[in-house]
Amino acid sequence: MSFGINIMKYKEDIIADLTELIAIQSISGTDACQEALDWMINKARQFGLKAEKVGNNACHVELGEGGKLCGVLSHLDVVPEGNNWNSLPFELSVGDGYMYGRGIADDKGAALVNLYCLRALKEMGVEGKNTIRAIYGIDEERGMHDMDEYFGIEPIPELSFTPDSEYGICQYEKGMLQLELYADTHDGTTLTQMHSGKAVNAVPDTAYALLDCTENEDHQLARLADAKKGSFEFYYTIDGMMVLSRGEAAHASTPEKGLNAATALIDLLTSNFALPTMGTIPAFISHYIGTDIDGVMLGIKMRDKESGPLTVNVGTVHIDEGYATCTMDIRYPVTANGEEILDKIRKVGEREGVHVKLLEHNPPLNMDKDSDIIRLLSESYEAVMGEKPKLYATGGGTYARKLGGKGVAFGPVFPGEESNMHNANECLSVEKYFEHAQICLESIYNLYTKG
């Protein structure tokens, strides 16, 4: 029997505390993130654990003294709730064997388990050889600057993992470029407004545009919409014709799982109107991105055997009188050079009068399959699940990038399981969640006692 089974005695307590944690609307960049951080610190102290805030955007909970410093990292900030939920996004809902709520899969569910693993070790009187820290941040969704600040104050653990992805063990994380593209002004004539998206790292599920066009053009656009991918609605307003585009949200690391409402809308509009009448930014998106997600029209399409293809996602578009801007999220293969990709995009932008601003660049993670942390996590997984975990690559970005080659992403979502990260109805299977909890306790136990 694995040690990890001991987490099950806390099942009811974990669900009760999840209800409180999910209710905190800690959308990245809002004041509620500090509330979530304070909640975690106070809860840890209630369990008799040492907890302290580090810098402005992180904290850690600590158990043990001496030996190697080992860590388990998770984040308490979440993406905006978005649309089309079947339940209240900031209220934990349980039904049909699933738990629903914004953050349950990314990453509050795992974050709470980390705390309960330390509680279990303390209350069971386990003697450790090493020091274990559960580290929490509140800026993961906006570039992980919380960990830059944290590790500017505290040392990087010698061995660590972050349950913020999938099982088995993530050996490769693609490089990530997040960009803002903008024009000096909005120079469109027919398109007067367009707005879509709240986050660069999510596929937007709604978009709308206001058009100054003739009645004949209105009718022609509506007929064309029937042949286009997506769902469109047309409304007459005092400011002109409004076109509403509905898509499907997804994480920017897997844009193929969603339907981008913004690029679908631009594709519809530029199929019916001349590019100059749409303005510089919509024309750029139409000509160099379209509805593709592989970067082929930008000249950056690529893939490698280790981590797969490059992907491109248009996360936000905001156009009004006097300004026009959009954001892009690019995940590129681990063997590629991010600076070269950025240079190509900048050159294309210069030709088209589009400025390219780098918001974030996280280089790829490429771990040795024989590293100590992969060996330890593999043994822990096998002890609970009865089989060895597979190594895999992801386009997602986790705190593992901040660990200096000393840590990896590991769980909590099992392959084939529905989670809807960054989408409506974010969820985790109750059964699988507590399987993850056992694997997590087994792993932290081994870090604490063996390392």
Main sheet: strands, sense, barrel: 9 strands, mixed
Work out the helix count: 11
pLDDT averaged over residues: 95
Q: Are there runs of 5+ residues with pLDDT below 50, and where? A: none
How many angstroms does the end-to-end distance come to? 20 Å
The helical percent reads 25-40%
Topology, number of strands: 26
Supply Rg.
23 Å
Share in β-strands: 25-35%
**Structural category:** alpha+beta
Brief description of this entry?
The protein contains eleven helices and 26 strands.
Q: What do you see in this structure?
A:
Helices cover 31% and strands 28% of the residues. It has helices at residues 11-23, 32-46, 108-123, 145-153, 215-225, 261-272, 275-278, 280-288, 338-352, 372-385, 430-449; strands at residues 50-54, 58-63, 69-75, 93-95, 98-100, 131-137, 159-162, 165-166, 169-173, 175-183, 191-196, 202-203, 206-211, 231-237, 240-246, 250-251, 303-304, 308-309, 311-320, 323-332, 355-362, 365-366, 391-394, 407-410, 412-413, 427-429. 53% of the residues are buried.
Task: Please describe the topology of this protein.
Elements: H1 11-23, H2 32-46, E1 50-54, E2 58-63, E3 69-75, E4 93-95, E5 98-100, H3 108-123, E6 131-137, H4 145-153, E7 159-162, E8 165-166, E9 169-173, E10 175-183, E11 191-196, E12 202-203, E13 206-211, H5 215-225, E14 231-237, E15 240-246, E16 250-251, H6 261-272, H7 275-278, H8 280-288, E17 303-304, E18 308-309, E19 311-320, E20 323-332, H9 338-352, E21 355-362, E22 365-366, H10 372-385, E23 391-394, E24 407-410, E25 412-413, E26 427-429, H11 430-449
Helix pairs in contact: 1-3, 3-11, 5-6, 6-8, 10-11
